[in-house]
């Protein structure tokens, strides 16, 4: 192997430390995201307490429409889609939480598909 001059040693040291830091951050975020439900409970708690649209969905009884399946089958109502459809009427806190999770999802999708480091 050829002798390394100081500039190559510094570049090699920098590349190795960046790779180690990237691996440590990926492992930490995987552990936090998969084993700690508090990361998801806290935004859900904030949405339930602060968002008036979610409170109105819970208090208003659900009436089936003409095109809905029979009463024996349950059709889940997705309150997140309701919030996204009413984006402009949501509170600032709700828009920030939804924006964070949508950005995280979209960045993860784009970076993972391109084989870039993402957790």
What is the number of helices?
Answer: 5
Order of helices and strands: HHHHH
Low-confidence stretches: none
**What structural class do the secondary elements suggest?**
mainly alpha
Summarize the main sheet: none
Head-to-tail CA distance between termini? 36 Å
Outline type: elongated
The total of beta strands comes to 0
**Helical fraction:** 55-70%
Radius of gyration: 23 Å
Function: Mannosyltransferase involved in glycosylphosphatidylinositol-anchor biosynthesis.
GO molecular function: glycosyltransferase activity
EC number: 2.4.1.-
Transmembrane segments: 97-116
Task: Tell me what you see in this structure.
The chain crosses the membrane at residues 97-116. Its EC number is 2.4.1.-. It holds the Pfam family Mannosyl_trans2. By secondary structure, the protein is mainly α. The mean pLDDT is 77. It is elongated and about 70 Å long. The chain contains 5 helices and no strands.
